[in-house]
Amino acid sequence: MGNIRQKPLALVGLDIGGTKTHAMAWSGGTRLAEAKSGSANVQNVSVETAKANIAEVFAALGTGHIDRVVAGAGGIDTEADAKFLRSMIAVHAPGAEILVVHDTRLILAAGHASTGMAVILGTGSAAWGVNAQGREGRAGGWGYLLGDEASGYWMGREAVRHTLREFNRGLAPGELGRRVLAANNVDSPDELIALFHGDTDRRYWAQQSPLVFEALAAGDPDSAVIVGEAVKHVCHMLSDLSTLLETRGPVIIGGGLGMHQPVFQKMLRKALDDKGLIEIRFLVLDPVEGAKFISDHSPLPAQAV
């Protein structure tokens, strides 16, 4: 009788991304509260900042006793990574069961899929999947120094690179270049070099990824190249994962770029259809909603009657 509960499960879900931490609290099936703060991912911010941002969302939730926390975060590559994140969360949820997963797993769960492949296209990028036999796999998600192709940061960086290439060739800035210069309040493309290597961070450049789609809508050829390359990178990730897991879908795509750029979605759908992948869906719920789906499909923490 140790797993029979006499009260609803008190659950907290955390989606710890490269730019923000999104939290929700539920009691049984009822959502009680929601909170947001800055990133608590120690690959992007200091440990002190991560701890402060976790403390901020738990304080805002004000949930009292917590039975379980389901936390999804990028960079959860080893048990040591998961253990460290659990230790930061445990301070605010004493006695709770803490499940730590890669943030792509939240996307699959938020798409109400127990098996398949999930792609996150946010500040960073990664793909993760699980097949019907329970075998898991991943592609990408190595961080911006090693990869993160097709991410918001990658796209912002590519916009800067295309602008600099025009400058080096003695050409006047094109549609994309003009937008990049204006967004960064500089007069000449060579000023972007010092700015990029200065105090700006990944979030700063990721937030400029919409410039690529704005220029694309205006007919800019450089932007078409960047978005086309992004589509190829996503196809490569999912092709590798599909081969490894011997599955063709469903494919759930989330993250800011994946959820909010219709042209990108249209191009991705066609390319993935051409690859023979099936049930391609773009997330409409916030990924943190996947925490409840994961919890609902996990055994209850023990509680004495």
Strand order of the largest sheet: 3-2-1-4-5
How many helical stretches?
12
Shape: globular
Largest sheet: 5 strands, mixed
Instruction: Output the structural class.
Output: alpha/beta
- The radius of gyration is 21 Å
**What distance separates the N and C termini?**
7 Å
State the share of residues found in helices, binned by percent.
40-55%
Mean pLDDT: 90
Q: In sequence order, what are the helices and strands, one letter per element? A: EEEHEHEHEEEHHHHHHEHHEH
Low-pLDDT regions: none
Beta-strand residue percentage: 15-25%
Topology, number of strands: 10
Describe this structure in words.
With 305 residues, the chain is of the alpha/beta class. It has helices spanning 47-61, 79-90, 103-110, 152-168, 175-183, 191-196, 202-206, 210-217, 221-245, 256-260, 262-274, 290-296, and strands spanning 10-16, 20-27, 30-38, 68-73, 97-102, 116-121, 125-130, 136-140, 251-254, 280-282. Strands 3-2-1-4-5 form a five-stranded mixed β-sheet, with helices on both faces. A five-stranded mixed β-sheet has the order 8-7-6-9-10, sandwiched between helices. Helix 2 (79-90) links the parallel strand 4 and strand 5 (97-102). Helix 4 (152-168) crosses helix 9 (221-245). The longest helix has 25 residues, at 221-245. It is globular and about 70 Å long. The chain starts with 9 loop residues before the first strand and ends in a 9-residue tail after the last helix.
